[in-house]
Design a protein that fits this description.
- It is a single chain.
- The chain has five helices and three strands.
- The model has no long low-confidence stretch (mean pLDDT 91).
- It is α+β, with helices and mostly antiparallel strands.
- The chain has a three-stranded mixed sheet.
- Helix content is 42%, strand content 13%.
Length: 119
């Protein structure tokens, strides 16, 4: 497995977020982004999950949406490092994973993301 500190990995996540166009990031609402080492072992996706969006997509929010906890996007460091052989591959995989999870916040589903190279 490729060795990378948590701080360096968190910086890659921040850089990937910075590459998302400002027009889109301004529309992101009530969402927090986290980096964790590994997904919960009892989770439905197992320990190979690269990222996870938990929340109510913007497309499903209506007048009732108020006073709720922020949506949560989590990027998992160890699963990404396990599938990457080079630093450049980690940079690419982090960016794809960040875009994938942010897209879920906007209500974009897995089928479209996979079709367009973000799966």
């Amino acid at each position: 497995m490729l060795d990378m500190s948590r701080e360096e990995f968190e910086e890659l996540v921040a850089e990937a977020l910075d590459r998302i166009p400002a027009e889109l990031t301004r529309l992101m609402d009530n969402v927090a982004i986290f980096v964790e080492d590994d997904p919960r072992p009892d989770g439905e996706h197992g320990t190979n999950l690269l990222g996870l969006y938990e929340g109510i997509p913007l497309t499903e929010r209506a007048g009732w949406y108020a006073g709720v906890l922020p949506d949560r996007i989590t990027i998992y460091r160890n699963p990404i490092l396990r599938i990457c052989e080079t630093y450049e591959h980690v940079v690419e995989e982090v960016e794809v994973t960040v875009v994938h999870e942010v897209a879920h916040h906007f209500g974009i589903g897995d089928a479209w993301l996979h079709e367009h190279g973000y799966g």
